[in-house]
Amino acid sequence: MNIHIIGVGKMGLPMACHFLAAWHVVTASDADPQRLALATAKGLTLAADATAMSTADIIFSSLPHDAALIAVAAQVAVTARKGATFVDTSTVSQLASRQVAGLLQESGIAYLRTTVSGNNHMAEQALLTVMASGPRASYETVLPLLKLLGPHQFFLGTGEEARLMKLVVNLMIAQTSAMLSEGLALGRKGGLDWQDMWQVLCASAVASPILKAKSVQLAKRDFTPTFTVEQMVKDLTLILAAGQAVHVPLPQTAMTLQLMHSAMAQGDAGDDYAAIIKTVERSAGLSTDPY
What's the maximum distance between 2 C-alpha atoms anywhere in the chain? Predict the structure, then answer.
């Protein structure tokens, strides 16, 4: 299969590498020269979008925000051949995604919304959870590629269901970090040892997969990002907008967004989103020094 992927960042690059390893013809593009250099080092062929889109069977994209998706989709609409499939894996709003659907329908290009759950390390290990919505026939065509990304694939509907499901997942991930922030601060202020708390939490009823995964770094107070505070602010803003659109109150999510903004104001924007642990610690008069 002839595949072109637009955006070879932390998620897009490992996806492209999995396709290449499965002996597909894969070309790649990105606006960042550093990302292009990494793609070349991985053996990917670089190509201008206009050239690659015109011959690709499937065009994947992994993009940072609504505006980038709309711009790329506009180019796909005028460049890709009729009958091609555009598969976007970005975390974006349902509103922007609907706009893209209209553009592509007029051009005769199938549009599959394919969001993923997992960080860049999980992407590299092909451990992502894939959530898709759009034309069922297009999903069945692309499914062999999606299976290269991880062990779980879900088809959720013919519209924007995958976009909303990704926001639901990220809402709960963000709330896990908020829960940890308060619980760990309470424990520390009351005299519990940091590593003792992590050992107990990971063996307790609250030991979710995300908590166990985070414990590997956070037990050492390592806030190296898999997903930054700044990125989580973007996602929480999308989540609150989705709630507003259907009149669902999300008060806890709104409070978590405020913690993320506090973390940014305190200089932690580039840290892992779990850095709100430090935000709550500061408010409790605790040191945020490394363990």
Answer: 65
Query: What is the Cα–Cα distance from 87 to 181, expressed in whole angstroms?
Result: 36
Q: How confident is the model at residue 213 (pLDDT cuts 50, 70, 90)?
A: very high
Could you give the CA distance from residue 178 to residue 54 in angstroms, rounded to a whole number? 46
Pairing of strands 58-61, 45-46: unpaired
Q: Which CATH fold topology does 2-158 show?
A: Rossmann fold (3.40.50)
pTM of the model: 0.95
Under CATH, what is the fold of the domain 164-283? N-(1-d-carboxylethyl)-l-norvaline Dehydrogenase; domain 2 (1.10.1040)
β-partners of residue 154 are 131
Contact yes or no for 218/177 (Cβ under 8 A): no
pLDDT at 261 over 90: yes
Residue 107, Cβ neighbours under 10 Å: how many? Answer: 18
10 to each of 142, 242, 250, how far by Cα in Å? 21, 26, 29
